[in-house]
């Protein structure tokens, strides 16, 4: 499936980093603060998406009761305190190493704060796998289309030889916008059923990250 490629553009949260349970815990804390019903994993994966404001509204958070800025501050405070308890997805480093042995270029394109991701890559000891990390300079988890275009331009990436690997429909949208292929992994922040249904069969969806190497 990866035969045409020599460049991998990775999403970070949910694709390489297994932070799903932490994000569910924080979402439930935000809901509890407003006396709303908590989510289970299936409900979370059926609801999570971008923009984050729409996702918050979908799960029942009252955006009139608390501003997006305040909600973001609450989320980031708890996330930063606990994210180092989150591991990489099973066999993620084995996949990274496999691609390195093939002399493929690997990058990260994230909607998270770039400096935070760099710190976590160092913490997990996998920073050397990536030629560049392109992310945001804020914690608002906005679209990463512009950053993706910059990544391609600054590194002279040939679009037909690159594939974006992510875990959400937004990754597929970003891939379409920047003109590269996409593969989605279904054990991240959105369910396999949702990824397959809402992408209308236009993208390959795998169960686990190690399915990339068989």
Which features characterize this protein?
214 residues; Rossmann fold; alpha/beta; globular
Brief overview, please?
The protein is an alpha/beta fold and 214 residues long. It contains nine helices and six strands.
Structure, explained:
This protein is an alpha/beta fold and 214 residues long. It folds into two domains: 7-18 and 88-213, 3-Layer(aba) Sandwich (Rossmann fold), CATH 3.40.50; 20-85. Helices cover 43% and strands 14% of the residues. The protein has nine helices and six strands, in the order βαααααβαβαβαβαβ. Strands 3-2-1-4-5-6 form a six-stranded parallel β-sheet, with helices on both faces. The longest helix is centred in the middle third of the chain and has 15 residues, at 68-82. It starts with 6 loop residues before the first strand and ends in an 8-residue tail after the last strand. The relative contact order is 0.19.
Overall pLDDT confidence: 94
Q: What is the share of helical residues?
A: 40-55%
CATH first level of the largest domain: which class?
Alpha Beta
Low-confidence stretches: none
The total count of strands amounts to 6
What class would the helix/strand composition place it in?
Answer: alpha/beta
Radius of gyration computed on alpha carbons = 17 Å
Question: How many helix segments?
Answer: 9
Spell the H/E element sequence. EHHHHHEHEHEHEHE
Distance between the termini: 10 Å
- What is the CATH topology assignment of the largest domain? Rossmann fold
How many domains?
2
* Basic shape: globular
The CATH homologous superfamily of the largest domain: HAD superfamily/HAD-like
